[in-house]
Design brief:
Layout lengths: L6 H10 L1 H10 L5 H15 L7 H15 L2 H14 L3 H14 L2 H25 L2
């Protein structure tokens, strides 16, 4: 059977994971299905699938931008995605230090709190998944 997923959906799944993407599609309704299509085509196909930056590099930039904009839920999502993008805890920390200088200490302070909590949750989940 041929893969019918778009390049954007494949990239979205590679970065965010199948479980997240499946849940997003399952939650979508007639009202927001066009939004799911928009972000899959624009963000995941037209930006994240470009060859000039790696997923790791895009991950770090995305984390910094979300932190600077105060987008806490999306920030946590993209910190979780580092498990798939190859961005390390050190990469996250460095991105957030940039946020402190260029977007302000309050934004970075909140983002660091979210990063610490999310990374701690990820570590606990990893320990629980081990046999």
């Amino acid at each position: 059977m041929a893969d019918t997923k778009s390049k954007g959906e494949r990239t979205r799944r590679a970065v965010l994971g199948d479980a997240h993407v499946d849940a997003a599609f399952a939650r979508s309704s007639e009202f927001d299905a066009p939004f799911q299509d928009l972000i899959t085509a624009s963000a995941w196909e037209r930006v994240w699938s470009r060859p000039d930056w790696s997923h790791r590099e895009r991950s770090m930039v995305t984390i910094a931008l979300l932190a600077a904009l105060g987008q806490e839920e999306e920030l946590a999502l993209h910190i979780r995605a580092t498990a798939n993008t190859g961005a390390s805890e050190s990469d996250i920390r460095e991105a957030l230090l940039h946020v402190a200088i260029y977007a302000g200490v309050p934004a970075a302070n909140t983002a660091i709190r979210i990063a610490k909590r999310t990374l701690s949750e990820m570590a606990a989940e990893s320990r629980e998944a081990r046999p």
